[in-house]
């Protein structure tokens, strides 16, 4: 079984087909996940989470069994840690703050990308990105299947010698997350930037400052700032400005600190006189994509009430009365300020 970056779709379709044929043997389903992981060494984990009693109606027979929780719900994740392949139960699948990997695909009923975020796996906290798809049978959503990628492992692959498959995966992540990626070692001494990251930064960071694969001083400052973070400002960030344009770079690093990732995003200004906070910009980004308050809450790991409070403040700042007007204004401002590269533009040398 060799799966592509459409793996979650393929897994979800396979499990839906088996369920439709009444093939609900849990050992078989778990074996499929394990085989998918074994066949794809770049995957960190492969998993499925079924709704209570949705697979075979026998959850009570599997209480606390391997790959199950205290209710017997079937939610195994096969993962690659410590040089081997192991299985354990997924956690917090219905937790609004930690369960976005499951709640988003099942609520939105489509494939999604979630992350980067920290998740406990194999006894350690791991910085991962997840691709997940809903398991749909006869119009009902019975669960979700997904694939996890370690950003730390991906950083190592990218910095050593990224293969075409690795580059394709990174491009997929960037497209779904709407950020460009720079991978570094734990201290920021070595770095690798994607094509879009290099192109976005070329007007703000001179090419010669990337000599030897080191971060330029403007970005290396993030590793100094990380010691000054707090719960209210968990990720250090820097705003680079050149003429009338600006770009934001944010450092995300796991507690295990095997590697780090810099998220590069264009800085959007909704009006000439008002600027929103980083959290308010994130809320508006997702609002402009058509997400509901509940969906935004899941994505950002906050409560729907907090989302509503953010929107109340945003509407006042943007001088609008409702969601549609705010989304229209935000998309217009974002399109006007986002620099679009001409076809065929290449990255600056040396990065």
Q: Would you kindly provide a written description of the structure presented here, covering whatever features stand out?
A:
- It is a single chain.
- A hairpin with a 2-residue loop joins strand 2 (76-81) and strand 3.
- The two termini are 36 Å apart.
- Mean pLDDT is 79; it is low at 229-233, 268-274 and 336-351.
- The strands form two sheets. Strands 3-2-1-6-5-4 form a six-stranded antiparallel beta sheet, sandwiched between helices.
- It is of the alpha+beta class and 351 residues long.
- It folds into three domains: 7-150, PAS domain (Beta-Lactamase, 2-Layer Sandwich); 178-266, Beta-Lactamase; 278-337, Winged helix-like DNA-binding domain superfamily/Winged helix DNA-binding domain (Arc Repressor Mutant, subunit A, Orthogonal Bundle), CATH 1.10.10.10.
- Helix 8 (278-287) packs across helix 10 and helix 9 (293-300) packs across helix 10 (304-318).
- 35% of the residues lie in helices and 24% in strands.
């Amino acid at each position: 079984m060799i799966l592509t970056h459409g793996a979650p779709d393929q897994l979800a379709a396979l499990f839906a087909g088996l369920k439709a044929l009444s093939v609900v043997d849990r050992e078989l389903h778990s074996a499929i996940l394990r085989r998918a992981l074994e066949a794809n060494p770049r995957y960190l984990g492969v998993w499925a989470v079924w709704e209570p009693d949705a697979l075979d109606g026998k959850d009570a027979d599997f209480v606390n069994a391997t790959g199950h929780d205290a209710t017997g719900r079937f939610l195994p994740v096969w993962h690659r840690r410590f040089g081997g392949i192991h299985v354990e139960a997924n956690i917090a699948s219905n937790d609004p703050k930690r369960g976005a990997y499951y709640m988003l695909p099942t609520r939105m009923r489509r494939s999604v990308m979630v992350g980067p975020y920290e998740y406990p796996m194999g006894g350690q906290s791991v910085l991962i990105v997840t691709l997940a798809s809903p398991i749909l049978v006869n119009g009902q959503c019975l669960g979700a299947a997904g694939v996890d990628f370690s950003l730390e492992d991906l950083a190592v692959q990218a910095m050593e010698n990224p293969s075409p498959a690795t580059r394709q995966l990174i491009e997929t992540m960037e497209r779904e997350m709407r950020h460009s990626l720079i991978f570094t070692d734990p201290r920021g001494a070595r770095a690798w930037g994607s094509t879009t990251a290099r192109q976005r930064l070329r007007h703000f960071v001179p090419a010669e400052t990337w000599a030897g694969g080191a971060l330029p001083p403007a970005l290396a400052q993030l590793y100094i700032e990380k010691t000054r973070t707090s719960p209210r400002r968990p990720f250090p960030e820097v705003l680079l400005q050149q003429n009338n344009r600006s770009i934001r770079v944010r450092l995300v690093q796991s507690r295990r600190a095997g590697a780090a990732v810099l998220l590069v995003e264009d800085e959007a200004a909704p009006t000439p006189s008002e600027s929103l906070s980083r959290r308010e910009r994130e809320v508006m980004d997702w609002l402009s994509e058509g997400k509901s308050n509940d969906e935004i809450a899941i994505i950002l790991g906050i409560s729907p009430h907090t989302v509503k409070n953010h929107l109340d403040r945003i509407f006042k700042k943007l001088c609008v009365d409702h969601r549609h007007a705010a989304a229209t204004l935000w998309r217009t401002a974002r399109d006007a300020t986002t620099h679009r590269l001409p076809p065929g533009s290449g990255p600056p040398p040396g990065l």
